Amino acid sequence: MMSHEPPKLRFNSFKRQSSMIDPTDPEKKIVRELEIRRDPLLEHGVTIAPHLTDKVLFGETDQDLLHELVESSKQNCFMCPENVEQSTPCYPDSPMLPGGRIKFEEAFLFPNLFPLSKYHAVVRMTKDHYVSLRNQTTEIWSNSILASLQFIKWVNSIDPKSQLFTINSNFLPPAGASAVHPHLQILGGHKEDCALVDRLWKRSTQYYETNNQCYWLDLVSEEKQRKDRYLWDNNVDWLVPFAPLGINEVIGIFPMVRSFLELTETDVQSVAEGIKRVLHFYDQEGFSTYNLTIYSGPLSPPVKWFRCFVRIVSRQNVVKNYRNDIFFLQKLLGTEVLPISPEAVALKLREHNKHQKHDSI
Ligand SMILES: [Zn+2]
Domains along the chain? Predict the structure, then answer.
């Protein structure tokens, strides 16, 4: 019988049991089931521990505290409309960056005063100081991504050796954001400058050389056939990965786009619409923060072994004295822990998606 599994695309999973004597009854044994998985490409690990659903991992968002955080951070916000022009630096003036910045509707791009890479731009996404997950729109995201792409095109025109770019976002302090105002961060430089993307590229190249197929297209076709983690297709293929890097992780893969420079306006609309759907789902599930990254292959020339994709994870909620969701397991042992399986997340997300009104692309 022919296997559906393309060569080398391996979904490795290991079942383990952990047992102990019940504290309330010495005659009784407690047995906990665990599942350990490896990502088919990068081989990072995840431990699925369903018994954690009984433990409070994510406190319910404290709306009063969130309101206080929004109001107090508004006072001196450098991204709010009255401050952004005077408080932010600029790049050299050029036709692609008039005045050294990029304005795209409400999106406003400027250099990060405290860069973490050769190119590090910030995009203020909207004039509003705070936008809850429920109020995120396709428009906010598409304007911000389009501004980011214009910046990346500009860098490519002046410094074609800088080939590695990512578009990233932290939302609210429990997800690592130092500013409340919604913003993206574009990092750019050489391939050595981001170890994870360097590894993504190396592994994707190796996969292509071994199988003469693109890993990302094999992954989409495999997940489409298996159905249990595949979400929907809106010109971008959305799915919950087999071994996520974070809680409630969703990835969206552009089946035709190899580099940021190939993204069309329609592609941007599609990914923006998908991001909005995922963030609305997080809101419905009671989450209030996230991290997001959009990955690209080398900018030019585009490579056949990679496809652009976005990865979105939810993070700890805005709760007083919250327990950080990253501990030794993720930070030092390279393993994420999940209270529910990726398949269960996918099931909930598909259900949520059925009842939503979608923007036409
Ligand atoms: Zn602001």
Answer: 53-354 (3.30.428.10)
